């Protein structure tokens, strides 16, 4: 039998051990309680528009809308060009070019005049997973569009309904479509409008600060000897953007009178072939080739490649990084028609 004194000592020792264990457990629980984290600006996701690289406060799920826009002198000034993320300029018949204006970050209230489709417009529109809009088509483009190859709205089927004729211009230079009718047409046809295209590659702020290239003066893309069909670009050092000039006049938006201001001018050389008596062309948009990239008042001689249907510039084996903003892409039969002052 333990003595009374010894039993008391043992009891005190046990009580001490229990109290110590409880105390340590309390400390452990206190230490494992996570501290609330205060979100910082660094933690916020960086979101940008996929075709301009410009920052936005929320993700943009808008599908790209690609529209064939008329560039005949009687169609100028056009409506909605200032809001296009990218404009491709290609020859149609003769020396007259047409535009494929691609909208994603914003969609104008009114776009036009709208003109007929060609195969190469369809090819580029598909490359950006676009809803494609045109008024009319070449025979080969008609087969492709009516086959359901691409989601599309055409003025041949919707003249006077979704497409409206302007009274101040003569046909075929007076067909327009509104933002509301694009949405209405997509709903009627069951087309999805919330599938954004894959993003292009853009320069970071640090890369722009250290940007290098050969400084040059004004640029001319001479689709013809006639000034009516020469596309010129002049870089403004003050606002750091390119202005587009045609026939001696700065290209503006008919709806807002805002000038067309651009951050990237790209010229791609592609093989052109006349395919019929009407002077329609085929343009090889898959083989790649030489290209010129104009940014920040400077030039780079690079290449271009077809990437899943998109003709885009390549530099040192990788997609060329663009200055965040709007881009104008001229596709020409030869770089010899491009001139600039050093």
UniProtKB/TrEMBL annotation:
<feature type="domain" description="DUF3048">
    <location>
        <begin position="219"/>
        <end position="329"/>
    </location>
</feature>
<keyword id="KW-0732">Signal</keyword>
<feature type="signal peptide">
    <location>
        <begin position="1"/>
        <end position="23"/>
    </location>
</feature>
<dbReference type="Pfam" id="PF11258">
    <property type="entry name" value="DUF3048"/>
</dbReference>
<protein>
    <submittedName>
        <fullName>Lipoprotein YerB</fullName>
    </submittedName>
</protein>
<dbReference type="InterPro" id="IPR023158">
    <property type="entry name" value="YerB-like_sf"/>
</dbReference>
<keyword id="KW-0449">Lipoprotein</keyword>
<dbReference type="Pfam" id="PF17479">
    <property type="entry name" value="DUF3048_C"/>
</dbReference>
<feature type="region of interest" description="Disordered">
    <location>
        <begin position="26"/>
        <end position="45"/>
    </location>
</feature>
<dbReference type="InterPro" id="IPR021416">
    <property type="entry name" value="DUF3048_N"/>
</dbReference>
<feature type="domain" description="DUF3048">
    <location>
        <begin position="51"/>
        <end position="191"/>
    </location>
</feature>
<dbReference type="InterPro" id="IPR035328">
    <property type="entry name" value="DUF3048_C"/>
</dbReference>
């Amino acid at each position: 039998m333990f003595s009374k004194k010894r039993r008391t000592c043992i009891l005190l020792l046990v009580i001490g051990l229990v109290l110590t264990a409880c105390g340590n457990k309390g400390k452990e629980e206190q230490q494992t309680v996570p501290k609330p984290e205060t979100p910082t600006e660094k933690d916020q996701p960086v979101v940008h528009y996929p075709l301009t690289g410009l920052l936005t406060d929320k993700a943009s799920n808008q599908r790209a809308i690609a529209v064939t826009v008329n560039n005949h002198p009687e169609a100028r000034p056009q409506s909605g060009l200032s809001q296009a993320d990218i404009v491709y300029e290609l020859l149609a018949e003769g020396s007259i070019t047409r535009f494929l204006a691609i909208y994603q970050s914003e969609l104008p209230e009114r776009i036009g005049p709208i003109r007929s489709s060609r195969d190469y417009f369809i090819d580029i529109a598909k490359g950006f997973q676009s809803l494609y809009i045109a008024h009319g088509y070449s025979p080969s483009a008609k087969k492709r569009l009516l086959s359901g190859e691409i989601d599309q709205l055409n003025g041949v089927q919707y003249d006077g309904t979704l497409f409206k004729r302007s009274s101040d211009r003569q046909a075929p230079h007076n067909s327009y479509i509104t933002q509301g009718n694009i949405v209405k047409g997509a709903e009627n046809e069951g087309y999805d409008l919330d599938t954004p295209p894959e993003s292009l590659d853009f320069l970071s702020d640090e890369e722009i600060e250290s940007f290098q290239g050969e400084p040059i003066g004004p640029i001319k893309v001479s689709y013809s000897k006639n000034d009516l069909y020469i596309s010129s670009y002049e870089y403004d050092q003050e606002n750091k953007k390119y202005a587009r000039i045609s026939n001696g006049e700065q290209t503006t938006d008919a709806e807002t009178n805002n000038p067309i201001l651009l951050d990237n001018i790209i010229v791609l050389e592609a093989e052109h072939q006349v395919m019929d008596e009407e002077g329609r062309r085929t343009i090889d948009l898959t083989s790649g080739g030489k290209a010129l990239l104009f940014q920040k008042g400077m030039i780079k001689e690079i290449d271009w490649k077809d990437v899943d249907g998109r003709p885009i510039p390549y530099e040192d084996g990788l997609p060329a990084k663009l200055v965040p903003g709007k881009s104008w892409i001229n596709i020409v039969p030869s770089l010899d028609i491009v001139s600039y002052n050093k």
